[in-house]
User: Fold this.
Amino acid sequence: MTTTKKILIALTSHDTLGTTGKKTGAYLSELTHAHAVFADAAFDVDFVSVQGGHVPLDGVDRGDPINAAFLDNASLVAALETTKKPSDLRAADFDAIYYAGGHGTMWDFPHDKALAAVATAIYERGGVVGAVCHGPSGLLPIRLSNGEPLVKGKNVAAFTNDEEAAVGLTGVVPFLLVDELVALGAHHQPAPRWAKHVVVSDRLVTGQNPASAKGVAEAMRDILTR
Assistant:
């Protein structure tokens, strides 16, 4: 008997872009494109955010048909208003966790030890951890039971320093994501700016930018169904 896989999508609760006065949040296509892959695979999907409840969104482009389909689904929109907190979850209920990006993640994902503990438990029971763009900021606090960072010795992709400079936010974000991943022992594997790029390293799947979200979810799906 095939058991339905259960996927947890992790989202930021942070809506302020530093001191710029601009709003940010979870980048919509990084959520929707991954969700579409998981839904097509008939996986059960649940949402979690750092603070629970409402998830602020960035990059809300209805010209993207996958975004539009998600936004037109009343139950999915409602789910983003009532997300669970990490403390509401049992890691044993999930086969994988996917960290969607968006600049907001840079302010809250790295400090959420409860969410990191959920990811550790999922990974150590044979599950998959995925992250895209700025989502790998959620990997920074993950420590395995041996005390080592999850990313140590792993090949990873993430929003590059070059891409951060290109969007003019190098001096706005609290740190440069690639630098912090490398400091923990990760092996960063960059692609050209804005290219679709997915890196699979054991059961850790990471993508470089919004264009990579679908590919990260597909790689996660393939690991979970092989």
Residues 6-225 form a domain with the Rossmann fold fold (CATH 3.40.50.880).
